[in-house]
Amino acid sequence: MKFDPLYNPYPSSRQVVYASNGMVATSQPLAAQVGLDVLKRGGNAIDAAVATAAALTVLEPTSNGIGGDAFALIWTNGKLYGLNSSGFSPAKISIEAVKARGHEKMPVVGWESITVPGVPAAWAELTKKFGKMPMVETLKGAIDYADKGYPISPILSTLWQNAFNYFKRSMKDEMFNNWAKVFAHEGRAPRVGEIWRSPDHVKTLQEIAETNGESFYRGKIAELIAQASAKDNGFLTADDLASFVPDWVEPIKVNYRGYDVWEIPPNGQGLVALMALNILNGLELIDRDSPATLHKQIEAIKLAFADGQHYITDPRKMKVAVEDLLSEAYAAERRKLITDYARKPEIGEPYGGGTVYLATADGEGNMVSFIQSNYRGFGSGVVIPGTGIALQNRGETFSLDPTEVNCLEPRKRTYHTIIPGFLTRDNEPVGPFGVMGGFMQPQGHVQVICNTIDFNLNPQAALDAPRWQWIKDKAVEIENTMSPTISSALARKGHVISIPVSRNSFGHGQIIWRDKSGVLVGGSESRTDGTVVGY
């Protein structure tokens, strides 16, 4: 089936946005405007992506930050490029060292959970390779909002309050106080409509912009991070920071019903989405709201996750080749396991191996799919004094079991949840898409792609459609907007169904498609504060 990106037969909670000169879609309206301003000043889609991403570290700090990781897929000059800017674990960390501190599994907060941040390096690398503007121009919007402040929106306020409550319970006094000086300086989370500003972010973003990111890894900011780590007996060192560079990687794909769906290769979990789509390729999906369709999708994602969580880690440590996991023969074998009744996920043997998302496009044909995250909300809870930098807790996903492929080792990249997606047909770009939200992300990718290709939904309708999320074993959560008849039918097929009150756990996505005439059409997540802007 060939879908029409401009076709709009289904009502949505938000209107689809059309434009031809440029477009930005992300989870925070002010950040989208920052990116659009860059496009109007002569920047390209890559500059707009960097500007929007930097602004999001200020405008949505509950989901990402300067101390997080990033990935990107970039269409430019007739080719798709992939950037992996996820950091590795410190050279001095080990399973034995973490266990010696009393941990039986990787902790959620504190220095043990911290890996080298990749976000500033991603901004610098994208600017250097494909940008038209220097970082002193693209980071102006972020710096301005950090300096002058902005009013807190309702969903942002709720997430901030949740983080405040969690950190208050979970962190040592000194660590919590450092975090609170920046993010709760009134002794509480900021409330709806209050103006929040951060002078520390201003200084750090200016330093990053003026040094093209060098200061963060081999300069003044790196020294401050290393000093804070040494003071608190952390594992991260100046040498860890200085040794980090992002990797340009070859994107991986599967052909799904005539369209190429692209993801970043491991250590990212985009491979999970591709394996699931490969399985679904041989199955008929007739009706989006059919229990039979949802059952097949759920069973496919379970099989893909079983393999992903068993095999995916730092690509240097993987024991199975990506091409084997994505082979037609292996997909056919996994497909045979899907019956009319739910089953627990099974690992196969293929032998033959807190997040923000944004999408940008410009009138020159450039398009960017970009994602960055601190992992869980504000991350580790560690904030470097005087900088506003909240360091990610991505290391939490490592295992302390040395027999597992994703076990903790020095200078190793862990299994990564954040994944940008991209769609092409006949070697021509259709556009960027993404759904953020931890392990919901590949599940969101599969549902959005099926909504688009199988059911011809426009971008907004594809995002608005009720979602499901596989949790573990036979447990599945479905949104409260889904028909009770469907949930009952899925339960009869053996799924253990629950319906959360909040829709927040089902991911937040963005889409921009381009048709052959150059018209852009975008959709933005109705589950958060996001928006699409264009001109």
Overview of this protein structure:
It contains 19 helices and 21 strands. With 535 residues, the chain is an alpha+beta fold. The two termini are 30 Å apart. 56% of the residues are buried. The model has no long low-confidence stretch (mean pLDDT 93).
Pick out its properties.
19 helices; alpha+beta; seven-stranded antiparallel sheet; 36% helix; globular; 535 residues; single chain
Q: What's the main sheet like? A: 7 strands, antiparallel
Uncertain segments: none
According to DSSP, the number of beta strands is 21
For the record, give the distance between the C-alpha atoms at the N and C termini, rounded to a whole number: 30 Å
Largest beta sheet: strand ordering: 1-20-19-15-14-9-8
Q: DSSP helix count?
A: 19
Shape: globular
Q: Helix fraction? A: 25-40%
Mean pLDDT: 93
Structural class: alpha+beta
Q: What is the CA-atom radius of gyration, in angstroms?
A: 22 Å
Strand-residue proportion: 15-25%
What is the chains' assembly state? Answer: single chain
Task: Spell out the blueprint of helices and strands.
Blueprint: E1 17-19, E2 22-26, H1 29-40, H2 45-59, E3 69-76, E4 79-85, H3 95-99, H4 119-130, H5 135-138, H6 140-148, E5 150-151, H7 154-170, H8 173-183, E6 195-196, H9 199-210, H10 214-218, H11 220-231, H12 238-242, E7 247-249, E8 252-256, E9 259-263, H13 270-280, H14 291-311, H15 322-325, H16 328-335, E10 355-362, E11 367-373, E12 383-384, E13 389-390, E14 421-425, E15 428-436, H17 441-454, H18 459-464, E16 468-472, E17 475-478, H19 484-492, E18 496-498, E19 508-514, E20 520-524, E21 531-534
Parallel strand pairs: 17-18
Antiparallel strand pairs: 1-20, 2-10, 2-21, 3-4, 3-11, 4-7, 5-6, 8-9, 9-14, 10-11, 12-13, 14-15, 15-19, 16-17, 19-20
